[in-house]
Amino acid sequence: MRKCKLITLLFISLAMALTFSAYFQPTKVQAATDNTPVVFVHGLTGSDSNFYFIERYLQNQGWSSDELYSIDLPSKQGHQELNSSAIQGFVDDVIEETGSDKVNIVAHSMGGANSLYYILNKGGGDKVDKLVTLGGANRLTTSAAPSGIDTTSIYSTSDYVVSSYLSVLTGANNIRIYGVSHIGLLNSYQVNGHIKEALLN
């Protein structure tokens, strides 16, 4: 009799535990994001595929694929007028497609100079919230961060393509790192962390 009661109590306990577990079981819900769209701008001889690893990283950090856009510039030699005009049209398309007021730009190498030229000469000042350059040849366009835009310049002392002098901008958050090559800036976990922080702050 005692054994029967014990078995009954065990069944009741098990049933209660299962009911409790089912009731409070969390459901997987994809978190909605409202991140400002990011436009990636490549450098000399580059392409829109250069940011593959950075895009994958940001997706793992909560950005959705439809918040990340890469432009393939018409001039692989970095022609300021041609490329800034292309960036202008591309940003306008992204804003129209997403309904966002502004975009953030992440630019590598000469893409930094082209993006700054767009901001300063093609109306980008009203359409860009944050600018992040990676080994940017920024001073080919200007020596100072554009007014009203949160600008971060990430550069490496091991970059032998674009000198640190060309990357540093007055008024920007200039982040110096070590041991990363010019191309390595596009696939560095350290750099990715700085990009994420710059986009979220």
TrEMBL record:
Keywords: Signal
Name of a matching Pfam family: Lipase_2
Extent of the signal sequence: 1-24
UniProt-listed InterPro entries: AB_hydrolase_fold (IPR029058), Lipase_EstA/Esterase_EstB (IPR002918)
Keyword Transcription regulation attributed: no
The keyword Zinc belongs to this UniProt entry's keyword annotation: no
Biological process according to GO: lipid catabolic process
Coiled coil (residue ranges): none
GO molecular function terms noted in the UniProt entry: lipase activity
This protein's name: Esterase
